[in-house]
Write a structure and sequence with these properties.
The protein is mainly alpha-helical and 248 residues long. Helix content is 65%, strand content 0%. It has a single domain, classed as Up-down Bundle (Four Helix Bundle (Hemerythrin (Met), subunit A)), CATH 1.20.120. The protein is globular.
Length: 248
């Protein structure tokens, strides 16, 4: 198989399961986090709360990028599409898409970088960035192959002036679409829940292993509880009503 076809095949597979496969990195992250907690305990230090809040802020920054991107995206674009595969009724070229071609994956990067930062291990962060690059490079390749095959020169001409991942702020163009909270609420409920669930899980396991007690820091429980409540409410509304059916 030609390398181009192999990368496309790998990208299509990773695209289909991109919401789940990154969870594989959580186990080594937990091991590094726990090891570091033992080290801090031995030398009489505790993990700085400010540092953890910075990590959470990085993750929330990534979530914000995703929300802005999705809220201004055209209908039938920028979706999760894990079951039906690639879907793009048009090319998004304004708003976040005017400064980089893959803003959703930039958002994902910061969301996961914040969680990886909990390990407080420089080399784990380096490994995470490298693996993220390899992982999402294939997904982005597959997406672009799909869009090139569908839109040809229209996509190629746009991609010449817009970088893939590193933003080019001078390219900024105001979005031609109005912001849709309905799209954000509908599409990001799972991402919000997974983010706060992962953070809570890291804190619970670290506390159990190191101090042999249940996590008693209420802010993590409250944040997860709010995310879970939000997820359940949105799912019920989607199932019982048509309030979240229409985008704009």
């Amino acid at each position: 198989m030609a390398l181009r076809n192999e990368l496309r095949s790998q990208g299509d597979y990773l695209f289909k399961y991109r919401s789940y496969l990154p969870l594989v990195f959580i186990l080594p992250a937990l091991l590094v986090y726990i090891q570091n907690q033992f080290y801090l305990q031995r030398i009489g230090q505790t993990q700085a709360e400010l540092y953890e809040l910075i990590c959470i802020a990085v993750s929330l920054f990534g979530l914000l990028i995703r929300m802005i991107t999705i809220g201004y995206s055209a209908d039938n674009t920028s979706g999760r599409n894990t079951k039906v595969g690639q879907v793009a009724d048009s090319i998004n070229t304004t708003g976040m898409y005017s400064i980089f071609r893959h803003p959703l994956y930039v958002g994902n990067f910061f969301m996961w970088l914040g969680i990886a930062g909990f390990t407080q291990n420089f080399w784990f962060l380096v490994a995470f960035i490298f693996m993220y690059w390899i992982y999402y490079e294939r997904i982005m390749f597959a997406e672009e192959e799909f869009l090139i095959s569908k839109y040809e020169d229209e996509y190629l001409n746009w991609s010449k002036r817009v970088p893939a991942f590193i933003p080019k702020l001078g390219n900024w163009e105001k979005s031609i679409n109005t912001f849709s909270w309905i799209k954000v609420i509908r599409q990001e409920k799972t991402g919000i829940l997974n983010l706060f669930l992962t953070i809570l899980m890291v804190k619970i396991i670290g506390e159990l292993v190191v101090n042999h007690q249940l996590l008693n820091d209420l802010k993590y429980w409250i944040a997860f509880g709010a995310a879970l409540f939000y997820y359940i409410v949105v799912k019920i509304i989607q199932k019982k009503t048509s309030l979240l059916k229409y985008d704009r």
